[in-house]
Amino acid sequence: MSDSARLYGLDMTVHRHPLGFSYGDDVTGPMPEIRRLDQIRPSLRDPQCEGPEEVYAIAMDVARMKDREELKKRMLLFGVVTYAAGRLGEEPIRSQGHVHRVSQHSGWSPPELYEIWQGKAIVYMQEYVGDDPGRCFAVIAGPGEKVLVPPGWAHATISADPNAPLTFGAWCDREYGFEYEAVRAHKGLAWYPLLQGNHVIWQHNPRYIPGRLQAVTPRHYTEFSLTSAPIYQQFITDPGRFQFISRPDKYAGLWQNFHP
């Protein structure tokens, strides 16, 4: 087994120049899509800021070839993302704030399970995208740690260290879709991450009702039977383990009063 397979559950290599991925002989995946600075300016606190031209690379539907039919049957998809090092003006490198589009097969806005591979991440999430964002969390995670975003929550993934690139994998619904309009209407999420030196601080977005941001570390999500093994390896071991991602409706009781 290659070192990457032990770390990620998949035989693949992360590239920096240019941003992207290459796959081992038994792994299939698409050419990564590159998110450029000009594409994500509408979701930034300062749309005119300077930063790396290529902000991050994303590849959706990465899998071992022998797993593809099982993943399709279970409506699951594995995505991988890698960020450039650096900053976006006063903000850290981050994804655009969004909500997952409702999937036709479940009738729910799907959850998403992240696993940090390289660097340090903050997964920011808020319950709603209306003027009242509800509960707001910043989950601070390092390599090997998992973060679960519950159904319907708006979220963004932030690089917490401007000097180190961030890479992560994630389990998603196969009918994944990103909705940006409600977040962009508020000029972003309810809290802006800002860099003070090499540390992330938070500024409230005045377009939302004032509230409280809770900074937490990841927990183990034992209610979903997760272990410390790489999340792709957990699928190999038990292909039914991640049905809560594609069929959150079947786990409705576990999402009530969910705490990240």
TrEMBL record:
Its EC number is 5.3.1.9. Keywords: Gluconeogenesis, Glycolysis, Isomerase. This is glucose-6-phosphate isomerase. Pathway: Carbohydrate degradation; glycolysis; D-glyceraldehyde 3-phosphate and glycerone phosphate from D-glucose: step 2/4. It catalyses: alpha-D-glucose 6-phosphate = beta-D-fructose 6-phosphate. GO terms for cellular component: cytoplasm. One of its GO terms (molecular function) is glucose-6-phosphate isomerase activity. Residues 53-205 form the Glucose-6-phosphate isomerase prokaryote domain. It holds the Pfam family GPI. It comes from the Bacteria. Belongs to the archaeal-type GPI family. GO terms for biological process: gluconeogenesis; glycolytic process.
